[in-house]
Amino acid sequence: MGISEDITELKISEERTKQLSQQNELILASAGDGIYGLDLEGRTTFVNPAAARMLGYEPHELVGLFMHDTVHHSYPDGSPYPRGKCPMYAAFTNGTTYKIEDDVLWRKDGTSFPVEYSSTPIWQEEKITGAVVTFRDTTERKEAEITLRATEELYRQILDSIADMVFVKDKNFRIVWANKSFRSYYNMTNEELSGILDAEFNEPEFTRKYNEDDAYVLNTGQILDMPEEPVTRHDGQIHLFHTIKAPLFGGNDKVMQLVGVARDITDRKQAEEVFRKGERKFRAIYEQAPSGIAILNSLSGQFTQINQKYCDITGYSPEEMVNRTFQELTHPDDLQADLDQMQKLLGGEISHFQMEKRYIRKNGDIIWVNLTCVPLWLEPTDVRQHLAMVEDITYRKRAEQALQESEERYRALYENNPSMYFTVGKDAS
Across residues 207-211, what is the average pLDDT? Predict the structure, then answer.
């Protein structure tokens, strides 16, 4: 007599368990992170290839060892790491999962490497039977972080070295960071500036306008250029700045922050005002001067600017004069001497020259002028222009000619008269 039992379901269950075990082994073998198991004494129950490779062991060398004493025995500085303070052990002693982002494990050769790990308790039938530790080598990440910090520090030093004020604001218009020039202008540290809309001593109306500009940049993603923007300094002085604000985009192409660069243009604006006043003063002198004043192209001789007195002397209108050259106005007998002096001026042989010459007026009259020419270029690359100042000396030249003619007539009468003429001194000698 025989007894038979249907064990089909048992076989199926065993097969499924075998398949599940094989799948788990494949998963452990293919995982990039290091994974190992601990029993309640802290001995290694399994180690996947990635963990063994990172630790410098073969998997079978680690099984059965006290893992803390083997790979987690010291702090990063090399000082002893007590087992009682180890989060990996704490997981199976108090049932808490631990995640550590900055720690080290020690290799077989005695060197260490940075890791982040998690230690999770294993529960079976409501009892803790051990823990699973999963770790990842963070060497590359750490090196990238060091490089990033070094790069950030380099850029920070560069931004701190420039004279322009540079600042970063968040989406709520609050200051995130400011460079040295900004901090000095406000006399505040980055800690004091961080999170504020603006300094309390600044004009509220100024701050309101800054925030309107911030909102435009953050909402539109467009760069905004403000040619003139008043900003109150910590001592109460108000300076003018040329400010440019630009959006800073996050990884999702959304505007996350804005950066601003502000250049103090107060001195420039004051210089421009002084220049404008000087220009108005010069213009008044230029237009009302008793002498003719003109600016000419020294190479072509063409008039480029001319005052009214110069036009009165030549008989041409300002519009007619700017289409002419000094060669056209100069009497042919005086032209070569004028050109010779201009060549010496252009060649640097003389610093200026003065001469008497004749002009031919628009109506054909010939007049005499006293001409003074001064170069307007300072550098070799400057445009070759010169200032010409003329004074009408026709009346004087005619008077000199009349006097000369009178003297000649008197001398002719004196020398051709048959009578005797002589002079007697006071002592009758």
Answer: 95
Phi and psi at residue 320, to the nearest 5°: -75, -35
Residue 172 has a pLDDT of: 95
The tokens describing 221, both together, are: 């993603």
Q: What share of the chain is helix, strand, coil (3-state, %, to 5)?
A: 40, 30, 30
Q: What are φ and ψ of residue 413, in 5° steps? A: -65, -40
**Kindly report the CA angle at 376 between 371 and 378, in degrees rounded to 5?**
140
Separation of alpha carbons 311 and 308, rounded Å: 5
| Strand order from edge to edge, sheet including 303-306 | 303-306, 292-297, 385-392, 366-375, 353-360
Tell me the one-letter amino acid at 382.
D
| Structural domains in the chain plus CATH codes | 27-137 (3.30.450.20), 149-265 (3.30.450.20), 289-397 (3.30.450.20)
- Identity at 400, one-letter amino acid code: E
Q: Where are the beta strands (DSSP E) in 15-70?
A: 34-38, 44-47
Please give the model's pTM, rounded to 2 decimal places.
0.51
Alpha-carbon distance 102 to 76, whole Å?
10
Best CA proximity match to 246, nearest among 228, 259, 261, 262: 259
* DSSP helix/strand/coil, 335: helix
DSSP state string for 277-296: HHHHHHHHHHHH-SSEEEEE
The C-alpha atoms of residue 356 and residue 334 are separated, in whole angstroms, by: 9
Task: Report which of 79, 102, 158, 93 is spatially closest to residue 122, judged by C-alpha positions.
Answer: 93
Q: Where are the alpha helices (DSSP H) in 74-123?
A: 87-94
pLDDT tens digits, 268-312: 888 887 777 767 776 777 777 788 999 999 999 999 999 999 999
How far apart are alpha carbons 45 and 67 in whole angstroms? Answer: 10
- pLDDT, tens only, 250-266: 878 899 999 999 999 99
Going by the DSSP 8-state scheme, the letter that residue 66 receives in this structure is B
Mean pLDDT value of segment 112-125: 93
Strands (E), 299-429: 303-306, 353-360, 366-375, 385-392
Please state, in angstroms and rounded to a whole number, the distance separating the CA atoms of residues 263 and 223.
Answer: 16
Which is it for strands 238-249 and 255-264: parallel, antiparallel or unpaired? antiparallel
Q: For 11-19, what is the mean pLDDT?
A: 55
d(CA 192, CA 188): 6
d(CA 95, CA 86): 14
Whether 95 and 121 have beta carbons less than 8 Å apart is answered as: yes
